[in-house]
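Form P-L/3: holo structure prediction, ligand flavin-adenine dinucleotide.
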Amino acid sequence: MAHAWRDAVPLSDEQRLVRDSIRDLCGEFDAAYWRERDREGEYPTEFVDRLGEHGWMGILIPEAYGGAGMATTEAVVMMEEIAASGGGFSAAQAVHGGIYNTVPIVKYASEELKESLLPEVADGEVAIQSFGLTEPNAGSESTAIETTAERDGDEYVVNGQKIWISRVDASDYVVLMARTTPREDVDKRTRGISMLLVDLDDAYEQDALEVREIPKSVSGFVHSYEMWFSDLRVPADRLIGEEGEGFYQVLDGLNEERLVIAAECVGLGIVALERAVEYANEREVFGGPIGANQGVQHPIADAYAKVLAAKQLVYSAAEVLDEADRTEAGARANVSKYLAAEACFAAADAAVQTHGGFGVAREYDVERYFREARLTRIVPITQQLALNYLGENVLGLPRSY
Ligand SMILES: Cc1cc2nc3c(=O)[nH]c(=O)nc-3n(C[C@H](O)[C@H](O)[C@H](O)COP(=O)(O)OP(=O)(O)OC[C@H]3O[C@@H](n4cnc5c(N)ncnc54)[C@H](O)[C@@H]3O)c2cc1C
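OUTPUT (holo model):
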C-alpha cells in the first residue's frame, strides 16, 4: 500500500533501477537513525558515505569523469526516494549540494580541474557540498552581493561576508559567488559576478576564513553558517567558467535544481502521509479508529491529492526540461516547486493534526516533517519569488523589481 503511493508514476527501466537501489540503501537507515541525527544535530556522515561508496554523489557527473552520467529525471527519482524513505527533506538536503555543485563544474570548469577533481567527487572521497551566494544584504536579490574577488597576478583576493551557507562542515570546497567587477561599473547588475572554487582547508590555513554556525529550528543535522573572508588568496585557475559571467552560469542549471527540490518536497509529503495513515488506522478513540472520522480522513485525502498532483507535475516536467526553452523550463520548474512545497506542507500539517498530542512528540517524527515542510516555502527561493517568476516571465505582468 505505502509503496503503491510512492510508485504512482510510471518509471523507465533506468529510473526503476535508481529507485530500487536508493530504496535498498535508505533501508539501512531507519527512523531511529534520523531521529538521533536530528536530536544531536549530527550530520549523517554514514548515510552520505554509503551514497558515495555506491557512486551516487556522481549521479550527474559524466562517465568520462568517473560519474554515472545520468540526468535530471534520475536525480528526481533519487532525491524523492531519499526524502520518502523517512529521512525527509533534511536527508535530501544533506547531499543535495554535493550533487548539484558538480553541474556548473562539469559545464564550465577547465578540463584540468574536471579531470583532477570530478572522479574523486563521484567516489565520495571529495565533497563539494557548499554553495556560497547569500549575503546579509543579498538574499532574494542575489545580484546585490558585495563580496569581492579582485585579481592580483595569478590569484584572486576575496573579501566579504556570506550567510546561510549550508554544509560547510561537511565540505572540502565551497563554490563561491563574488563580484569581480563592482556593480556600478557594469551595464547590467547580473554582470560582473564570478564563480570560484574555494578550498576550505587552504582558506583556514591562510587564516583568511572565519565561520560561525547559525542556530536554527529546522534541518538540525544540516548545519548552515556565516562566513567571513579576509584577504583570502584563491589561485586564478580556480575560476569556474568566464570572469563576470557567473550569475548566468548559475541560472543555467537553476531550473533542473529547482525541479529536484520539488521532488524532495514530494518525497517529504509521501512519508508524512504514510505516517498519518498508519496512525489514523491504529489509534482508537471513542471505540474506533480515528481515521473513520471524516474530520481526520479528509485532510489526509486532500493532502494526498495535492502530493500526487505535484508528483505528476514534477515527473512530466523532468521529461521535457532538457528540450524546453528557458521560459518554459522556468515555468515548469517554478510551478512544480511552488505546488510541491504547498503539497508537502498540507501533508505534514495533516500528519501532525492526526497524531494529536503525539504530533509534537519527537518520537513520532511528524513534527520534524512539519518543520521541514515549512522550510520548503523559504528555500532555495521563497514561494513569493517563484510566483514573481510566473507572474512576470510567464503571464506577462509588470515586474516588481
Ligand atoms: C536553512 C537554510 C539554508 C540555506 N542554505 C543556503 C546555501 O547553502 N547557500 C546560499 O547561498 N543560501 C542559502 N540559504 C539562503 C536562502 O536562499 C535565502 O534565505 C532565500 O533566498 C531568501 O533570502 P532572504 O532570507 O535574504 O530573504 P529576503 O530576501 O530578505 O526576503 C524576506 C521576505 O520578503 C519576501 N520578498 C522579498 N522581495 C520580494 C518581492 N520582490 N516580491 C515578493 N516578496 C518578496 C521574500 O519572499 C521573503 O518572504 C539558506 C537559507 C536557509 C534558511
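COMMENT: The radius of gyration is 21 Å.
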